Backbone:
């Protein structure tokens, strides 16, 4: 890895800055850390990141193919922390592959996955790791890790994911565009659906309002949403059932999302206005409180003919730090040759045990644990009865 050059595009954003921090931290990343090339439209802002963490600065405009190609030339891996992912599409990945580099993206949602698969990168020995963030990404890696903690053969999973945190313009814009594309948080799927007996079943669940759920300090609304990410998890693990709930604390964000659903802004000004509406909704829901984000999982399975139960929980106070760190781990896996040619999602490409160990050590991660609850097998987890 000592000769590796990693290009980071979007280094001045909240997730990008944290990715650079993780890439240059030998305690987190391991040694040697890669040489960094930091890119952005405003070299002065990028220079501030370089002054703090090291690395060279290269001006790059994503609308300029020649400048993008020049940035990627000589890189071993290019990491995109830029947004909105829905408008960038596959252009950074194509430039990276053309330069002989592998590619990672802290976003890179379902539409980008389809675009990149169509390019057949295996033919040139190139690889990409997408959705290398907290959600999607770590959200379905943690259940894979839980399976290895003594669950045995997995049977079912209930997940509750959400919290309160102010948004950036880029993350809010991606959310606006994903809603218009029929997705939530970048992963397409179906509201009120659940996984049953090997397939998605529509209208199996209902929205639960003003309920208490363990590990969440506030009463909340749990909105069922079976994403493509969750479906892949269920299929990969052979689950009989999976219930997935996106959690909302307060009403402002949920109301804003419902108002934006069903259409996408048709120009940059409208997109920014919608993004800022979501940012304001997030700010109102936070309401001066400390930010937190929780991913809580209840899994059951069978081992040696007996039922097993495990509870898993991640709690953090900065999702951008976690997202940047997962992006850095995707780079690490690519540099180490652990990812075969092709297009992969981070939850399926990264080693669960190693990822959990490293993420657990982040300053923003307050808890990342597995709890054996087999002895409490008679305590069923039900929405609204927790």
Residues:
């Amino acid at each position: 890895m000592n000769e590796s050059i990693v290009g980071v595009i979007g280094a001045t954003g909240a997730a990008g800055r944290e990715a650079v921090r993780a890439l240059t931290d030998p305690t987190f990343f391991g040694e040697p850390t890669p040489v960094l090339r930091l890119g952005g439209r405003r070299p002065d802002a990028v220079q501030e990141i370089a002054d703090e963490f090291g690395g060279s600065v290269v001006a790059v405009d994503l609308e300029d193919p020649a400048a993008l190609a020049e940035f990627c030339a000589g890189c071993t891996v290019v990491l995109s922390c830029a947004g909105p992912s829905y408008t960038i599409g596959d252009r950074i990945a194509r430039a990276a592959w053309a330069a002989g580099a592998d590619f990672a993206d802290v976003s890179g949602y379902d539409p980008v996955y389809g675009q990149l698969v169509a390019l057949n990168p295996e033919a040139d020995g190139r690889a990409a790791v997408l959705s290398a963030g907290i959600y999607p990404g770590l959200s379905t890696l943690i259940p894979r890790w839980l399976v290895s903690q003594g669950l045995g053969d997995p049977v079912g999973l209930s997940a509750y994911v959400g919290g309160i945190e102010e948004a950036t313009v880029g993350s809010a814009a991606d959310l606006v565009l994903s809603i218009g594309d029929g997705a939530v948080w970048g992963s397409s799927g179906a509201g009120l659906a659940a996984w049953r007996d090997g397939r998605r079943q529509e209208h199996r669940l209902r929205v639960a309002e003003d309920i208490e759920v363990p590990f969440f300090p506030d009463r909340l609304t749990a909105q069922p949403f079976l994403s493509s990410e969750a479906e892949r998890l269920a299929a990969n693990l052979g689950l009989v059932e999976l219930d997935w709930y996106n959690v909302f604390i307060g009403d402002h964000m949920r109301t804003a999302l419902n108002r934006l659903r069903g259409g996408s802004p048709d120009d940059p000004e409208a997109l920014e206005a919608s993004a800022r509406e979501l940012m304001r909704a997030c700010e109102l829901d936070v309401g001066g409180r400390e930010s937190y984000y929780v991913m809580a999982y209840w899994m059951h399975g069978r081992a040696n003919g007996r039922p097993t139960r495990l509870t898993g929980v991640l709690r953090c106070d900065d999702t951008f730090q976690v997202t940047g760190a997962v992006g850095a781990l995707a780079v690490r896996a690519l540099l180490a040759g652990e990812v075969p040619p092709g297009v992969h999602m981070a939850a399926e490409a990264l080693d669960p045990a190693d990822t959990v160990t490293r993420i657990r050590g982040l300053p923003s991660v307050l808890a990342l644990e597995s709890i054996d609850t087999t002895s409490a097998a008679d305590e069923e987890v039900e929405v609204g009865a927790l």
